[in-house]
């Protein structure tokens, strides 16, 4: 019995010593210098940390139609550890993606590790159609009936991973406003020009580092990445498409170098349409450099300045009326020339019109009358008003790339007395179409001028945040605005403006023919033909600005820009549901008839 | 009078003592095995649930991609370019404003819809996971003890200050 107990004791002691030795070994291994290194290395096998980019937000037009969205594309690559049949993989990739067989085979036979990658990306943007071909191959191989000693072909190791790419379903329509997103750069991609650039941060959302554990028990590691904000624009796709179509036809008809049609809501500054040439398909943004050789701006409406010519007379008359320099029925005696600082100003047709009132000054577009008017206003007053109209700065439109030409002011080294006269009829002063539209908006909207904007609302997490209109100023009184609108409505109904006439609708408007300066003076035989109109006159809903660059068919705005304005407005009133005068102004009478049941 | 130490009147038979030791050991073993089995079962279910969540998340990603695709596809087939082509192929013509007929409809206000205004999306109910999936057996046991102990110490009928 004693011997028996002794044996048990011995076994227990040995077992205890072994157990203690194991414990000591545990502690020793865990405290070895290499232990921390092993622990750190093990993290790579516990999960993966990656920077996840949220889905880029969509861009919609004012009616909720998608202008910029996302669609699926695939990254195709080789997981070198998983490849079992390199030849089969190389053949499939070569057949489907058109890649060189030998090149793919070289990739597929690369031994992973020891400085070589474990994964090789073949293409980052493969279409879903090609992925369907791969899937069909996988299925075909799986169902293939094998002959004796025949090995089943496998595409193991060939991987395709879906991700988003930017998509512009309207292609070139409105592309100068939208800008583009360089989607081929998946990590540093960002928006360029237009809305994509200005609102890049909102659209992109916030990329987040996400740790995904391989251990399915670590549920707390799963994270939701909120997508970028959606943006709703003020412009209407149908009107934009119509304006672009009219512009394209007008350029072909007039032989112009380029052009712009801008449709602006004077009541709140919303851009309804902004048509330009040339236009880039943002799906193929890499053609940018070819389409816009330096220094051609991406969006001339906001980035290209020019001397507007007589359309500017509407502004000068508004200033003269508002400052009290003239009254509507003030008479000017025109003898065909007006001298200022020794320089003679002549009318566009070198004619003399005798005694004319201020409406006639606009009707006949008399340079002499406007030069006289500017002197009556006085330089300080005149340029203070021009500043109030915003001609000395950017309008602040929410589109990337806006520029303006510095306004020459009395006292500047490059300002001369003659500038006061020429500026009054739109020469010697450079503006962008958006500046002209905003300033004209003050005349159309009872003197109140709104900052033009293209974004109507931002949608974040399903909640819609509207962009409030911003008042840029009130350069003239409501009374002055009304008078100018009446005067230019009257002139537009004159026979000489028949090209701008819109059957059934009353609009106000002014033509412009701007001479183009060269380094030798106004020697260029070509001109900038413009027209600015707003209406319906009793309650203007839109300002329409047409600018044709250097037309060859005719040099005059009344012959080139006015008929384009007329065509655009004829379609615009239908698309904007604006009934003709006979319906709109007879509204009460019609309503009474309907209510009385007659 | 001398005293001598007397052996006890009786002694546990060795086989009884061995049975007691073996029984105690077996009891401990059974308890440990039960706890281990329970832990294994819960761990297994937690792992299965985690895996399911990962699969659902992948499914969610796939569905999001599909939604984006369908939205883009719809936009493409209803784009102004595509619609103009269809209008042409159907021999349809755009309206002539001079031939349009306007009807006065009392009380009608055009375009009441404000763009793509959306009501806030209903928030999906967050998954309520049982503590068994998120806490260890020890955490669960401690929580149970803490939830029981207030009931033992507090009288719910007692007036609160």
Summarize the entry for a quick read.
With 598 residues, chain A is an alpha+beta fold. Chain A contains 21 helices and 22 strands.
Q: What's the number of extended β-strand segments of chain A?
A: 22
Instruction: Give the averaged pLDDT of chain A, no decimals.
Output: 90
The pair of chains with the biggest contact is: A-B, 54 and 47 residues
What shape does the CA trace of chain B take? rod-shaped
Biggest beta sheet summary of chain B: none
**How much beta of chain B, percentage-wise?**
under 5%
Number of helices of chain A: 21
Q: What is the strand tally of chain B?
A: 0
The rounded distance between the terminal residues' Cα atoms of chain A is 128 Å
Describe this entry's structure for a reader:
The complex is a heterodimer of chains A (598) and B (161). Chain A is α+β, with helices and mostly antiparallel strands and 598 residues long. Chain A is built from 21 helices and 22 strands. In chain A, strands 2, 3, 4, 5, 9, 17 and 18 form a 7-stranded mixed β-sheet that branches. In chain A, helix 9 runs antiparallel to helix 19, helix 12 crosses helix 15 and helix 14 crosses helix 16. Chain A is elongated and about 140 Å long. Chain B has 161 residues and is mainly α. Chain B is rod-shaped. The C terminus of chain B is likely disordered. Chains A and B meet through strand 3, strand 5, helix 9, strand 17 and helix 19 of A and helix 1 and helix 2 of B.
